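Q: Is it fine to ask for two folds in a single conversation?
A: Yes, each is treated on its own. Send the first.
Q: Here.
A: Result:
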Amino acid sequence: MTVYVDTMKAKFGNMVMCHMFADTDEELHAMADKIGIQRKWFQCPPKASWRHYDIALSKRKLALSFGAEEMQWRDVAYWARLVQGR
């Protein structure tokens, strides 16, 4: 099982954001805890199309240092349908 960060770079205010997601919620939340992301930022259906956190690039770098794997932004939709059944 794996935690992923994508290569998206979306502006949000003064920050640049990407997505962090995982094969299981347990892994995703464990990584969020490690990098200091609060659970209130977890996004899931029906408000979001898939289960993930939006994270700043500084948190992305930290997640990668803890073993997250990079995924190209164009591959995320395929992954979400495959793993999360969407």
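Q: Second one now.
A: Result:
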Amino acid sequence: MGVNMEDLTTSVSTITPVYSGAAYLEKLVEEIFQIKVSWENQKAPMRITESIFVVDSAIDNSESILNELKKKYHWVKVITLSKNFGQHPATMAGVLHSSGDWIITLDEDLQHHPKYFQKLFKRVSETSADLVYAKPETVVHQALTRDLPAKTFKKTMSFLTGNKFITEFNSFRLMRGTVARAAASVCSHETYYDIAICWFTNRIHSETFPLVDQRYVALGKSGYSFFKLLSHARRLLVSTQQKYLRVGAWMGFIAVVFSILFGIYVLIQKIINPASVMVQGWTSLFLSIFFWGGVSSILLSLLIEFLGNISLHIQGKPVFFVVDRSHDEILKQYFSASRTE
């Protein structure tokens, strides 16, 4: 290949939150193992050094299955949470227990197949991204009641907050380890993990895959209930810098300007043609409502945005963060050499 393969090593941790994955875990670990062996045989720079499974108060026998798999595969690690905390906290727990230069997070049910790992790394080699999301080619659940609301919500939030990455959010992601752990370390119990990552980097890209939730298609069931999805959406709102609140300030400003300009117009009309103002008192009343209502709207919007900034500060949004991307050259050399073979 023309490169020193001894230097081409970057460790990879995979992280999987587990809630009801008993039917899939053995197959998932076997698929990860196949990729691990394949990379080693190809002398690829990526090395899967650990696969971390976070048992989030599983409702089936997932934990016992994982404990057996841990005996068979030394690189399988099992973390057990004390109760059900949810997918994002479980993911963050896994991230903070990881050691890889790169971290891949994926679901338990093989919706996120390990065969796509290499394509995620190829995307990094092309862009020096800190985060690459797996983007579905089509609808994931193949159910209008699930896919349409989720897609609409993400687009709406992306528009209102000015965060263009929200539409890409997906639990199947490749993250630079330092960025992922830094983001996880500052999260509070209300923080949406993907939003926290956006605090640390804007080198975020996506790669398209044919992702389908086969469990939902086959059984009509998901690991998320309707109320859990609402809680998921609420956490995103709380964690986001809510720039849409400035709309209220602008509306208030427009109301104030309108009241002043219209007041001047009425005053001139009164001076030039007193008879044109037929009803006394109503004009000044409405102008006062517009003026003071606009002022109140401006002050309220500023106050809410100030409180929002305090909330982000409490949640740990950093002033700056330093990242080392010098080792990305390893991936660039590997994929460039692969193309020429």
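Q: Anything structural to flag on that second result?
A: Two points. Residues 178 and 324 are 9 Å apart (CA to CA). The mean pLDDT is 85.
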